[in-house]
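Notes on consecutive records. When two proteins share a document, each keeps its own sequence and its own token line. Never mix them. Below: protein one.
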Amino acid sequence: MLNQNLLKKVLNKIFELKKEEKFLIITDNQKKHLAEEFFIFAINNKYNVKLRLIPELKQNGQEPSREVSKEMLKSDVLLMITNKSLTHTRARREATEKGTRIISAPGITEDIFNRCVDIDYDPLIKMHEWLRPIISESREIQVTADNGTNLVFSVHNTHGYAEHLLKNVKGAFGNLPSGEVDSGVLHANGTIVIDGSMAGVGLLKEPIKLEVASNYATIISDNQDSLKLKTLLDNFGKEAYQIAEFGIGTNPNASLSGIVLEDEKVKGTVHFAFGNNQSYNGKNNVPIHLDGIVKKPTIIVDKKIIMQDGKFIDA
């Protein structure tokens, strides 16, 4: 069961949910047991809540039905606890633009909820106040790692606003667990070696190596995990290989679990995503978005090291 203090923290502190607000919870059969705990807690505390069960999505980034999209737009507060992700969908973006406060928690488990969500948010907010401007105002970023990663790129439309770690202002959006500063990617060139986990694959047995030219990746490693990723991306053609996102994990309680929702938040890691970039005002509308985690990276922003081998410098 979910910790009762956690349920209270999500609704009262993170959302600051008001009794009169329209609160919608979207879930599927795989995650219904978790969503129902929030629903029951909300009912018992006399919130205006509705639970909506949807068919399980086939892949991350798949659009929900038109009917569900309309319900999302009509809600004031939206909690999405699903197996596959609705984060990078048009429906979610339109609800955010309309002002809905949204938490997306695809693939989350009871353990991740209790361990990574019920945390002290004040130090995390302070870290994001330091880190986000460094990334958002950068001209050039280089990420290296001992595993062979060496990528140079620029970023745009940076997320990770400190105030959005709490979803208590109009249009606030993010995951639970919280803990990443993420950006759209432009002009990426070099090498990425994913060695932590990969969405759609899980914890990696062997690293996935990709060469990147003009923001498009090519898988050059030849192993089972690389083949799994290639099969997933090939279903959607060239645009699935576009580098969509760069993110830095900041959650001190997160650890590599094979569930990318948690993995991308692990403090001292970075992640790169392939596919849909419309959440960063990009134009790539391919219906897939997959994140891969790089362990113990070094991050160099405009020639200054801000992370060395997975340790923040001057944070």
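Protein two starts on the next line and is unrelated to protein one.
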Amino acid sequence: MKGKRLKIAVISFFLCCLFGCAHKEKTAPSSLPREFSLPPDLVQQVLSLDPDSLSEKEVSEVLSRCPAPRILALDGSIPIVSMESFAKFLIRMGYPEESVRNPATGSYSYSSYRSSKKMAGMIAWYYEKEGMMPMVVGQSQGGMLSIKILHEFAGTFKEEITVWNPYTDQSEDRHAIVDPLTGQERPVVGIKLGYASAIATGKLMRVFLGQWDMLSQLRRIPDSVEEFTGFHIQYDPISGTLFGVGQGDHYAAIGSAAVRNVILPAESRHLSVPLTEDLAKDREAREWIHRYTASSPPPQETKDFYRDKKNILLAADLWYSIRKYWCIELKRWILAKERMDKKL
């Protein structure tokens, strides 16, 4: 473990030297990011979109021409399969690659062994600098980290969270940001994500891994997120649903968060469930995915369909929510820019 930490430290130091980012930024921006600039016709097209019903054409011709919220894809505890395939699925579906890859390392996903407090501080940094609230999607232990990040923002563990610079991998010695949509300073604790998700995350592994602080919190979703989706795999011994998904396995809101529980078909497998990139290359699968909506999904498919189009239900449901909040966050960004322009 010490060798691994030393390796990470050496790589981080090399990147900082290479890109000249070792200096801590202590000056927060006072307005929306300067790179914000969309043609007036594109702005109107975005504002006319319905986030709950976005067609493939609207994604490719409108949203894909715009910036997007950063996606933090969190790996599971077993390094056999990462969330890289899912990240590449998003890119093939039209999500901007620069909003998926880690800008400091170029990787498509993040380790689930990272500190939830630092990850929360990093999300705050991204929000302040990029103007749109990031989304978090985690598989297995990564799902636990996703939920733990929500509890960090809710103040479950600490009253303050330090802003964390993802380029330097260092603290910025401050516990507040300037909200890019209001121009007002606000603490990191209290930030609210638009969307977060956990895939095949079980309580039993929290015991094995000694993550005691999450045993009582794992299924409780705080108000630090607007919408949360918990995905469960039928008869999955790793996530603790060997005998099926019971009521005790379901996620529930502590307060006002909109929480959905989605049970994936038994054809899904714990270690391979993130493997979704090939679905974006399949014309039939893409059409099915774009028809899918959380409120009105396509009719239940046969086992043969789910076996042939492996992990398509997970891919479709996540793509529905991610493109929805891409649209929502983009609209918030545009409207905030308009309000600020009127004040000038």
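For the record: The chain has one domain: 40-343.
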